[in-house]
Amino acid sequence: MTTDPRDLVKKKPGLALWLPLALFGAFFVLVIWGLVRPADREVASAFIGKPLPEFNLPPATEARPGLATATFRAGKPRLLNVFASWCVPCAVESPQLAALAAQGIEIDGVAIRDRKEDLDRFLATNGNPFKRIGKDDLSQVQLAIGSSGVPETFVVDGKGVIRYQHIGDIRPEDVPLILGKLAEAAQ
Amino acid sequence: MIRLLFALLALTLTVPATAQDMLPPAPYAYRQLPDSAQEAKAQALMETLRCLKCQSQSIADSDAPMAGDMRHQVRTRIAAGEEPEHIRQWLIERYGDYVSYTPQVKPITWPLFAAPLVFLALAALLLRGRFRRRAETPVEGSGE
């Protein structure tokens, strides 16, 4: 025996009467929550814990050699910095990269859609913490490792497995975290 | 002549306001594939892939350089004979389901596909009750 909605109304007019308002209230709360909650527009790489894909990038500048996957299998954790000379936060993070390099961390760069002359100027202005810089004019390596912008920094362990992704510029307060992740990757 | 020179100078000396690269777009960012069947496949796929820079646009819609590079990658792979769904999976492996506008059938998405069926069944059940009642009392509301 199915119940007719009209019977419900007859029996409990109070409850049914409040239902639309309650639904509206729930919807209202949902919308406000969506508005107030800070937007998270970062797309994290799903490639963490996976080995770096095979690539072999030509050098982006004469000052440094190009970059290939084999470099990351040398047994020591390294940082892979995805950057570009045209990216403003990339210049902002350069003191932090310099500090990491000064502590003996090996950093390799992937220059996204960059011109040699722009890159040389960028390195002359902001310093060059990189051991190698690969030229990625079609964002191929960037896409292959699930990076969605510049700058991004990946901690890669000595076997070439991506262990951690830092999205955005490395701020001074992020340096201990990066060092911690490198130490973790070394174990 | 002088004016033209100045105009040209003004054009070439302007500094771009936003951080944007100076490289020309990737070869297949704005060029269609010569084979129209392949281009149609690529276009259909590109319309269902999210631009990661401008997240409410598809890569087919976006002029962001990264979207151009993604279009280049999609077109060259399709030209090489790769299946569109294989390319989609390749991207999902790297960026998660978020990169695809087409929902994938997974444990977490089954309600998406089940909900229409559930609602249809519910509607059928409700209507069945109504029709039956009508058949029993031919004159609507005569008892009130």
Automatic annotation (TrEMBL), chain A:
<feature type="domain" description="Thioredoxin">
    <location>
        <begin position="46"/>
        <end position="187"/>
    </location>
</feature>
<keyword id="KW-1015">Disulfide bond</keyword>
<dbReference type="InterPro" id="IPR013766">
    <property type="entry name" value="Thioredoxin_domain"/>
</dbReference>
<protein>
    <submittedName>
        <fullName>DsbE family thiol:disulfide interchange protein</fullName>
    </submittedName>
</protein>
<dbReference type="InterPro" id="IPR036249">
    <property type="entry name" value="Thioredoxin-like_sf"/>
</dbReference>
<dbReference type="InterPro" id="IPR017937">
    <property type="entry name" value="Thioredoxin_CS"/>
</dbReference>
<dbReference type="InterPro" id="IPR050553">
    <property type="entry name" value="Thioredoxin_ResA/DsbE_sf"/>
</dbReference>
<keyword id="KW-1133">Transmembrane helix</keyword>
<dbReference type="Pfam" id="PF08534">
    <property type="entry name" value="Redoxin"/>
</dbReference>
<keyword id="KW-0472">Membrane</keyword>
<feature type="transmembrane region" description="Helical">
    <location>
        <begin position="15"/>
        <end position="36"/>
    </location>
</feature>
<comment type="similarity">
    <text>Belongs to the thioredoxin family. DsbE subfamily.</text>
</comment>
<keyword id="KW-0676">Redox-active center</keyword>
<keyword id="KW-0812">Transmembrane</keyword>
<dbReference type="InterPro" id="IPR013740">
    <property type="entry name" value="Redoxin"/>
</dbReference>
<dbReference type="InterPro" id="IPR004799">
    <property type="entry name" value="Periplasmic_diS_OxRdtase_DsbE"/>
</dbReference>
<keyword id="KW-0201">Cytochrome c-type biogenesis</keyword>
UniProtKB/TrEMBL annotation, chain B:
<keyword id="KW-0349">Heme</keyword>
<feature type="transmembrane region" description="Helical">
    <location>
        <begin position="108"/>
        <end position="127"/>
    </location>
</feature>
<feature type="domain" description="CcmH/CycL/Ccl2/NrfF N-terminal">
    <location>
        <begin position="28"/>
        <end position="137"/>
    </location>
</feature>
<dbReference type="InterPro" id="IPR038297">
    <property type="entry name" value="CcmH/CycL/NrfF/Ccl2_sf"/>
</dbReference>
<keyword id="KW-0408">Iron</keyword>
<dbReference type="Pfam" id="PF03918">
    <property type="entry name" value="CcmH"/>
</dbReference>
<comment type="similarity">
    <text>Belongs to the CcmH/CycL/Ccl2/NrfF family.</text>
</comment>
<protein>
    <recommendedName>
        <fullName>Cytochrome c-type biogenesis protein</fullName>
    </recommendedName>
</protein>
<keyword id="KW-0812">Transmembrane</keyword>
<dbReference type="InterPro" id="IPR005616">
    <property type="entry name" value="CcmH/CycL/Ccl2/NrfF_N"/>
</dbReference>
<keyword id="KW-0479">Metal-binding</keyword>
<feature type="signal peptide">
    <location>
        <begin position="1"/>
        <end position="19"/>
    </location>
</feature>
<keyword id="KW-0472">Membrane</keyword>
<keyword id="KW-0732">Signal</keyword>
<keyword id="KW-0201">Cytochrome c-type biogenesis</keyword>
<comment type="function">
    <text>Possible subunit of a heme lyase.</text>
</comment>
<dbReference type="InterPro" id="IPR051263">
    <property type="entry name" value="C-type_cytochrome_biogenesis"/>
</dbReference>
<keyword id="KW-1133">Transmembrane helix</keyword>
